[in-house]
Design brief:
FMN_Rdtase-like_dom; Flavoprotein-like_sf; 5 helices; oxidoreductase activity; Multimeric flavodoxin WrbA; globular; Rossmann fold; alpha/beta; six-stranded mixed sheet
């Protein structure tokens, strides 16, 4: 089982990132289940705007798309900015829009059979709204969602504490992260055994 985590922080490496931290915690849960996990910070790559498979001129998306296509499970990890997923996360969704034109011999999107999940961090409310936006977008482009397909942490409103500043992981976050991993892993195994029918 292969898991790809696309971390959509606005902070390039090696700056600390709460989204990266939560993605790594999700990845650790997947690794306990025997999955192979790769984590990529999208902002470190020159992903061009657009809705095509390859926008040319050094576009880094085709290489990242290869990783998406090779994965059984895709995790999108994003901070909340102004009540929305980050602009980097939105760009990933826009690039995934190109998958609507890509089908196999049975007429299925190439993303059918792949499972998606979401990790969200922020200092204000909005995790449910952000996950709902991402769920709809990911499902539109062919990914399946297991129950409990999101883990998140949001700090107290109008305060400055980040997830990465906490001394330890809250139990509620840890248990939700575990549930996300085991449910997504289970669904991916089921879809591997029984693919969706052709169109």
């Amino acid at each position: 089982m292969r898991v790809l985590s696309l971390v959509c922080t606005l902070s390039p490496s090696p700056k600390p990132s709460s989204s990266q931290l939560l993605a790594e915690q999700v990845g650790a849960e997947f690794e306990k289940l025997g999955a192979e996990v790769e984590t990529v910070r999208v902002v470190d790559h020159d992903v061009r705007p657009g809705v095509g498979l390859d926008m040319g001129d050094g576009d880094a998306w085709p290489a990242l798309r290869e990783k998406v296509m090779a994965a059984d499970i895709l995790l999108l990890a994003t901070p909340i900015w102004l009540g929305h997923p980050s602009s980097v996360c939105q760009r990933v969704l826009e690039r995934l829009d190109a998958e609507l034109s890509e089908t196999d011999a049975a007429g299925r999107l190439l993303t059918y059979g792949k499972v998606a999940a979401v990790a969200v961090v922020g200092n204000e409310d909005g995790a449910h709204k952000v996950s709902a936006d991402l769920f709809q977008g990911l499902n539109d482009v062919g990914f399946s969602l297991a129950p409990g397909a999101v883990t998140y942490w949001v700090g107290e409103a109008q305060q400055g504490t980040d997830y990465q500043d906490l001394g330890e992981t809250p139990e509620s976050v840890a248990s939700t992260t575990h549930t996300l991993a085991v449910n997504a892993h289970h669904l991916a195994e089921q879809l591997r055994r029984a693919p969706y029918p052709g169109s």
